[in-house]
Amino acid sequence: MPRVDERRAGVASGLAAYGLWGMFPLYFPLLEPAGGLEIVAHRVIWSLLFVAVLLTAVRAWPQVRATVTDRRALLVLSGAAVLIAANWLVFVYAVNSGHVVETSLGYFINPLVSVLLGVVVFAERLRRLQWVAVGIAAVAVGVLTVDYGRPPWIALALAVSFGLYGLMKKLVRVAAAPGLFVETALVVVPAVAVLAVLHARGEGTAGSAGTGHLLLLLSSGVATAVPLLLFAGATRRIPLSTVGLLQYVTPLMQLAIGVFLYGEPMPPARLAGFVIVWIALAVFTVDSLRNARATVRRRTAEATPAPV
């Protein structure tokens, strides 16, 4: 029963994390008239303070000190901090400029980008169906390039930046809250500098657009940190194959918001591109589930004592 309860808690945490990320296209327009740079700067500053309070509550500062004194971990987290900040900036720009559908495409193809990064960086060998899925996704990108009249650079930038961010996190084993604090602290000085420059030019909105706007900007710290912490809790409790299935909640929600709430166009050629992406993901998911089951059966067989 405890194991069942753990899995239920893990699934609930995963759904909550991906559900919150899926609603971000509804949240960021509320932060206007702040621009993308100002929003990202506020996300950095207030998420740092929120995580600092959390670390104090759970007495996890020794883990932060251990991470800071580890040169390799600090270098890797520096790269992760830059990548996630770039991901945030592209996402906020896309949402506030009417490209929510394209953001959903980025998170649909992110798993396949992560697979390719595993091949390039870790020299992993892909199974046949994984190569098929990657090939189908490449066809989809070609179809969407023709439809958009340009490469879907927003989707590709989101997929690559988040895939590289996940790669960086894989290279260093740090608990969620301490790792998030260190990452954020590494980019807090540039964030403060950005806000200082914006306010010096009279372009900052934190003190000039009303109390409600200021409170919304402050809430960006909680909105940033909570889904990341929920995601970390999910990955500790449930298999990665389950996490992989749950991750499609986010782009599905973003696609629905873009098409049905914001009325973004979905011409036949674009819909065809998305359908091809979904076929690639279906192939990839079926292969992942088959491989996970085969691994479980093999481990069970190895753990079973031979008959006397």
TrEMBL record:
Sequence intervals crossing the membrane: 9-28, 40-61, 73-93, 105-122, 129-146, 152-168, 180-200, 212-233, 245-263, 269-289
One GO location term (cellular component): plasma membrane
Source organism, top-level taxon: Bacteria
Membrane topology according to the record: Multi-pass membrane protein
Keywords: Cell membrane, Membrane, Transmembrane, Transmembrane helix, Transport
Domain EamA, first and last residues per copy: 14-144, 154-284
Compartments, as annotated in UniProt: Cell membrane
InterPro entries to which the protein is assigned, alphabetical: EamA_dom, EmrE-like, RarD
Main location: membrane
Similarity annotation: Belongs to the EamA transporter family.
Protein name: Chloramphenicol-sensitive protein RarD
Origin species: Geodermatophilus siccatus
